[in-house]
Amino acid sequence: MSNRKGPFDKIEQNSNIKQADIYKIANSVKNADFSDEKTVRNLVQHLSRMANKRISKDKEDKIVQTIIQNKLPTDMQSLSKFFK
């Protein structure tokens, strides 16, 4: 048996969001319009509440605009820095 943690273990450890909840969210947004600001903002707020992590209005705006403009980093290290 391996002691290596998978990506879901790391997400759960850092955000307190369970793997099952991640799948529920993914299924609920798989047909979402990520160019729609209201949709993206609601998702960001929902994830913030689930993770019990408060984000500032400025940070929320930055995340929403980045997603709407389809400019999210594609590698895990850059993504991690983006959300800190």
Blueprint of the fold:
Layout: H1 7-15, H2 19-29, H3 37-51, H4 57-68, H5 76-83
Helix pairs in contact: 3-4
Notes on the protein architecture:
With 84 residues, this protein is mostly helical. Helices cover 65% and strands 0% of the residues. It contains 5 helices and no strands. The chain has helices at residues 7-15, 19-29, 37-51, 57-68, 76-83. The radius of gyration is 14 Å and the shape is globular. The relative contact order is 0.11. The model has no long low-confidence stretch (mean pLDDT 82).
Shape: globular
Strand content: under 5%
Compute the CA-based radius of gyration: 14 Å
What is the residue-averaged pLDDT? 82
Following the backbone from N to C, one meets helices and strands in this order, namely HHHHH
Regions with pLDDT < 50 over 5+ consecutive residues? none
Proportion of residues in helical segments: 55-70%
Major sheet attributes: none
Query: Which structural class should the secondary elements be placed in?
Result: mainly alpha
Q: How many angstroms does the end-to-end distance come to?
A: 32 Å
Based on DSSP secondary structure assignment, what is the total number of beta strands? Answer: 0
The number of helical runs is 5
